[in-house]
Design a protein that fits this description.
The protein is an alpha/beta fold. The protein contains seven helices and eight strands.
Length: about 200
């Protein structure tokens, strides 16, 4: 779901669930609706649908506060959240004054620490973008929250494999490309592919 007013998510999520589909993804593009709000609305309006957040830009999110939001949504929904993090669209990050010196370093630090926090670990980390001092979620999700990286190129795919995370591939990904990604991330990693639809 992309480019629609936030209130449309409620009816669309009910329609998706009643059609028997297993999951629905919402986008967080600059100037449109916030991803976490849309995910929460969709999950609240449904009872079995998995809802994916595609994709929270790492450069504009503090990993502790992002983990707090994701953990709360995961708990409230009974584990039906699939969280996605990407480095963010460079032009949009420049527009809002949040473009990091290294997009990949930022993505690595944010996604790795969010993963650890959602897994219930105490995290201390001093990197180029992330600085955390002995923080831990008091109410981590009771079951693992699926976390995937929205990436395109070989560095991002390799990062997902290194961190043991799934991948979210953009619209237009060919079957051959998806097969190459599968070989890199391994047989157990989750691959989500966005497609165009009317």
């Amino acid at each position: 779901v992309d480019g629609r007013p936030a209130e449309d998510v409620i009816g669309l999520s009910r329609l998706v669930e009643s059609a028997g589909l297993d999951e629905m993804w919402v986008c967080e593009d600059l100037g449109l609706a916030g991803g976490i709000a849309q995910v929460t609305a969709a999950l609240s309006a449904t009872s079995r649908l998995t809802v994916g957040l595609g994709i929270a830009p790492a450069a504009v999110r503090n990993p502790m506060y992002l983990a707090m939001e994701l953990a709360a949504v995961a708990r409230i929904s009974g584990g039906r959240l699939h969280a996605g993090i990407g480095h963010g669209e460079p032009h949009w990050l420049t527009q809002v004054g949040q473009r990091p010196r290294s997009l990949m370093a930022c993505l690595s630090e944010v996604s790795g620490t969010v993963r650890d926090l959602l897994d219930g670990r105490e995290v201390t980390f001093a990197g180029e973008h992330v600085h955390l001092d002995a923080v831990r979620l008091q109410h981590a999700p009771p079951t693992p929250t699926p976390l995937s990286l929205g990436v395109r190129g070989p560095k991002g795919i390799a990062l997902a494999a290194d961190l043991g995370l799934g991948v979210i591939l953009a619209e237009g990904s060919t079957p051959d490309y998806v097969a190459r990604v599968r070989r890199i991330v391994g047989p157990r990693a989750r691959i989500t592919v966005f497609v165009w639809s009317n």
